[in-house]
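Notes to self after the call with IL:
- keep both proteins in one doc
- input above output, always
- annotate only the second one for now

Protein 1:
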Amino acid sequence: MRVRSPPVSPSYQPTLHRLPEDTTGRFAILREFLLRWHGIDTGPVGRTVSRVEEAEARVKRRLPPAVREWIVLLDDLARLGAWVEVLRDALSLTQVPGCRAFSLLVSGENDRHWGPLLRDLGSEDPPTHDFAAVSFGRDREFERVREVAPRVSTWAIEFIVRYLYLSRSVQLEYPVSEAARARLRALGPEVVASQIGRSELFEFEGGLIHVELDSDPSCAMLRCYAPCRATDRSAYDAAADAFARRLDPMWGRA
């Protein structure tokens, strides 16, 4: 069963800039974001599901709070039938093949995993790494590429924001520049700026702008989103045009 907002949802209100330091609070904010943006009510934090115990049995370790919260969130998305609106990758929740690491998620192409090292599972919210396939075929193995986030909770939020293009929303892109970012930062309090990991976010009523700070400068973009429940192309085009006109003053255009 899906739990959703009404067809005409309230305007999005800035949410992610309130990210706290504690692990449970960070996942509570992520769940609030899923409700405000996607209209998906995933329920409260602080619960457990059978997938957690099954994952712990596979790696023969007790998983830390951040990993447990992530698994419960994935279980909720699957239970609500909302997976494809938030993520495009697949469940793994086991040891990364060929690596001493726990997989939080595996890419849809089965060529990349993300997760913490097994040695870090004693930390409440351990660093997250990515792992790329080095052999292919039935028994492929992986190797660690780099640390992608200082905390599992940071990675989870960034990962979901990077997949906003899957959501029911207007999506516009503009070339990024330091001048444009500085102008956006100066627009407060109407525009709330924050940085989560390698992402800079600009939230405002009814929309969000995302900048990937580790992107190649030659192709970096301001990715602008606004929730949209349009059911046909003409309605979407009208919403996109209205959103573009709303963004124009942010770039200093008349």
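Protein 2 (the one to annotate):
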Amino acid sequence: ENYPPNQECTWLIRAPDSIIEFNFLSLDMEGYPPCYSDNLIIRDGANSLSPVLASVCGRYPPGSIHSTGDSMFLHFSSDSDVNGQGFNASFSKGCGGLVHVDRGVLTSPHYPQNYLPGLNCSWHVMVTPGFRVSVSFQNPFQIQGYGTDCSSGDYLQLRNGPDGSSPILGGRLCGSSPPSVLQTTDNHLHIRFVTDSSIEASGFKLIFEAHNEGRISCSVFDQ
């Protein structure tokens, strides 16, 4: 359904001891930049006076948006004219953390710009019990790893379970050719992204969804 006219909504996202990564899953709003009609303003801080990170409208979502601190303030407004379906988005800690939703996006920090050296990021994705986690990768995918099974340099590793001791899912990933789809056997997925001190690249963007025998869960949980 379309959102109502003349709406004013605000959200405050907090992630103690971390930055925040915000990703759009879909976008359908009136207007186009600079978004004088309906808009979603994303601010780098805890209130409406914080610096603007992005002003969003239209149908073409931006890439990942990152805060510089532990808070992100969102303000959505609509006028009395044309309305759309709005937006759907996910957020997580900027480099790791628990992600408890049934559909979302995770990226390397600063994607699609180059990630930083010396990273060791771990995410635990948890979807509805009884469902599996299905993962697909987007382009560009570029991780500067080398050697057999990405034994040197940077790598991305997915595991079939909740933590770093769970069975490896698909081996270490690096280079520019990710697998098409990976799927866990239960509702937990562990992701680890490690970079060394030398050459960086654009990194990765993955989409995860809860699946169960051909069905996709529509449930959403708070993080």
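Annotation: The chain has two domains: 8-93, 97-216. The first strand starts at residue 8 and ends at 14.
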